[in-house]
Task: inverse folding
């Protein structure tokens, strides 16, 4: 009987140690529904890399600049867009098609914004695509693009217009009219899962 009592006491002590360790472990690690997992962090990193690749590829292939020049002077917006830019998909340009295929067709929303410095030295946004409010887990990529005085705007069909930036009413002002350089802008692509 003494032996049975010793085994019972050992079992109770072992159970108390086990329960104490579980309580301690749960208090140390706070897991909530909003806690980021390594898989969601991996997805964000992957989306950021894809966004960076899409911008770099478009710049190298020459499809980014025509999108930035797809401006409708008379309407004061991008061709066929609202004041907020394109709100349903990418612009109807080669770069816009790549954005739609790469992101929108795979359930990933995106915003594309042109940033420039105004006359007061303030950084100003000019939305090109605005598909909504990015989530907290959005990823972004940026690319610097140089615009020249002799860059031509694009017509609604995508063809080269006779109007150059130096003679256009473009949303970004000429940084120095005495130079061939029109200005330098930053293009930001923000992506997030819908």
Result:
């Amino acid at each position: 009987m003494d032996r049975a009592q010793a085994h019972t006491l050992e079992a109770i002590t072992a159970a108390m140690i086990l329960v104490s360790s579980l309580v301690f472990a749960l208090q140390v690690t706070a897991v909530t529904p909003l806690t980021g997992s390594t898989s969601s962090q991996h997805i964000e990193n992957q989306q950021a890399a894809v966004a960076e690749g899409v911008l770099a590829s478009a710049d190298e292939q020459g499809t980014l600049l025509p999108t930035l020049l797809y401006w409708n002077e008379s309407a004061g917006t991008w061709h066929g867009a609202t004041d907020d830019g394109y709100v349903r998909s990418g612009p109807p340009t080669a770069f816009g098609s790549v954005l739609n295929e790469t992101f929108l067709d795979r359930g990933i929303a995106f915003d594309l914004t042109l940033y420039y410095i105004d006359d007061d030295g303030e950084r100003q946004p000019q939305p090109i695509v605005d598909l909504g409010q990015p989530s907290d887990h959005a990823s972004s990529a940026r690319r610097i693009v140089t615009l020249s005085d002799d860059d031509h705007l694009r017509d609604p069909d995508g063809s080269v217009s006779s109007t150059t930036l130096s003679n256009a009413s473009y949303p970004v002002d000429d940084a120095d009219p005495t130079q061939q350089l029109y200005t330098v802008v930053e293009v930001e692509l923000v992506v997030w899962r819908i």
Remarks:
- Residues 70 and 154 are 5 Å apart (CA to CA).
- The radius of gyration is 27 Å.
